[in-house]
Every structure is written in C-alpha cells, then in structure tokens.
UniProtKB/TrEMBL annotation:
One of its GO terms (molecular function) is polyprenyldihydroxybenzoate methyltransferase activity. This is Uncharacterized protein LOC109477849 isoform X3. The gene is LOC109477849. Pfam families: Methyltransf_25. The lineage of its organism: Eukaryota, Metazoa, Chordata, Cephalochordata, Leptocardii. Residues 36-93 form the Methyltransferase domain. InterPro entries: Methyltransf_25 (IPR041698), SAM-dependent_MTases_sf (IPR029063).
Amino acid sequence: MDTTKPEHYSQNRSLQQNIGVELLQQYMRWEGGDTVLDAGCGTGEICKYISQQPGVASVVGFDVSPDFISFASQHNSSANMRYHVSDVSDASTIKPEWQGAFSKVMRPAHSFIPSARLQT
C-alpha cells in the first residue's frame, strides 16, 4: 500500500479500518460528553466512525501529513470533528489547549491510553 498518497491509502485500508472498528466495538465504552483525540488519524475514517457513536461530543484528529489532513477534512468530516496537522513526536506542534482536554485518546495502533497519562 502506498502510504504517501491519501487517496490510495484511504481506498486500500479496509482491513485496518475493519480491525479498528472491531476493537472499538469490543473494548471502548463511550460515555456522555466524551471528547476524543485520535493521534495519527491518517485519512480520518476512524475519526468519523467515532464521531457517530452515541455519547461522543467531539473528536479531534491529527496527523503529521498535511495531505492526509486535507483529505480527511474533505471526505471524513462532521459537525463535531476537527482535524489538525500535528506530530505526536514533536511537542511544539501540540496545541496547549489540548492538554487535559480529552476523555479518551486513541493511537494509530488502535490501542487506547488514559488521557491522564498524556501530561507533558
């Protein structure tokens, strides 16, 4: 799979998406007012899925690729979602207002970590 072109990536990631959705359905419990951060959101398909779940108030997705964020904004948006270009490995790209702002955080490997552990 060509992971440099968002159109190709989005069209050829169905297995990854299916596994991600299955894991979310199996292990994630959404609570009223959840604010979710997807760190490394790629082209945004999982963000859009999360945004449609009962109890989810908002979703922020970020990715290091401006092209992927542009694709996500155009093809996988909803009223309770926002996308940003940011790099999880570069603290200077993380918005200060995000610290402590999320009830749930998702990483690209579709694993979850408590937001309390994200203090920088």
